[in-house]
Every structure is written in structure tokens, then in C-alpha cells.
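Let's practice the habit of predicting before peeking. Look at the sequence and jot down your guess about where helices and strands might fall. Then scroll down.
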Amino acid sequence: MQQKKVRVLVLRAAGINCDAEMVTAWEKAGAEVDLKHINEIAGPQANTNLDDYSILGIPGGFSYGDNLGAGKLLANELIFRLKEPFSRFVESGRPVLGVCNGFQILAKTGVFGDMTLLPNESGKFECRWTSLQNTGSNSIFLRGIDQIYLPVAHGEGRVAFGDGAKAEVSLKYCDPDGNTQAAYPWNPNGSVSNAGGVSNASGTVIGMMPHPERFVSAWQHPNWTRQKTKEVEGAGLKFFKNAVDYAGREL
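Done guessing? Here is the structure:
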């Protein structure tokens, strides 16, 4: 009997612009992927049920032009238009990945408690590749990942925690030697504790500023022409495969 494919919903709204890359990443990981606008899931024109999916992915970009703050308006739509199904999805333990603007959106829904993302300390948009170290997190996305090299591209990525934070720092910016106290430019935004990604307590929800979907092929590495490797996959694909494998066991 043919195994049922894991179904992934990639959420979009006006201003989201990394959706195609995320769809490709999930497809390369073996999932069946639907790209849906928020209005197709919430409200009178809704034709899609969030409960029909095993994984939720929220891509990067500038949702609604980052008006009222990065990710704030789409977060409000999840809170006020999809409160029950979104809460049920998270509480059920189904994987949720938010990348860059997607991380900002998740943070402002409150899934990580009292934490937010502030403008970069440099005062400018930071676009470069940087290294990250797994902290030993229980995140299902990070299984088999120790240190990884990924691109960042953001203006508001500085992680800050309040007293009511419910987030585990699962990825820390580091230098090539794995030093997780490395300063700028390895920590591109000035995040507290060099936090590049955080997870919820169960490890099924992760928000991260670096873009794993932009390194799913070895040819996307900035030095690919100089590397003597037969690897075809990029290291970022592991995030997506881990989530698909995890969700597949629940089907």
C-alpha cells in the first residue's frame, strides 16, 4: 500500500515573497504542498480547513508592508480570524515553521510568550550568510543538525525576551569555529544570547531568522563552484525532511 503523503500548508498574504522557495523546499522533502492566501483559510471566502494539514509553514517577506510592525497584521489575522484552529494546530503537536517574517508573525501571535524581534543593532538591513549552532534543543526540525551555514536577510531580527517568555533558544549565531558568543557580523542583528532561532517547549514550533529554504540545493551555497563535493542537497533541506518524517509517523 502506498504511504500517504504529508500535507503542508504554506501561508501567504500581501507582501510575503519567499513563498515559492518554501513550497519548493517542502516538495523536495517529499510533502504534498498547498500555497494558500489567508483569505482562503479564514473568513467568508474560506475554502480550506487548517485541520486538514499536518504541517504549517509561514514564509518570509514583508507581510502587509510590515505596517504597524514586522509581521503584526498577519499575526493579528491568525489571532482574531483563526484563533481556534491555529491554537488547536499548535497544541496538537503538529510542526510549525516560521522563517524571517514568518518568525516575526509567530512571535506576535504569542506562541513563544513574551518575546519579540526588534530592529537590528546595526540600524540597517543585513543580508549575508552566517553560521548557527544547535544548542542541544529538542526541536524536531533540528534532529541531526549540529552546525549549519545559512543566509539571513532582514532589518528586524534582534531577538528580545521578556519575563514571560516561553521560548527555548534552539539555534545560536556562531563563528566558523562554533563560538556562540561571536559578535557582529556573525550575530547579524544583536540578538540576546546570539539567538537565531527559538522553539516552543515541545519542540514542534520553531521560529528562525535565517532562511533554510534558500539552501536546499548545494548549488545555492555561495562557494559552490570552489567546493569539491558530490553533495546535491543543501544543508537547509534537513529542516524540512525532519518535519516531514516526524509528521509522517503521525499519519
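How did you do? The chain has a mean pLDDT of 95.
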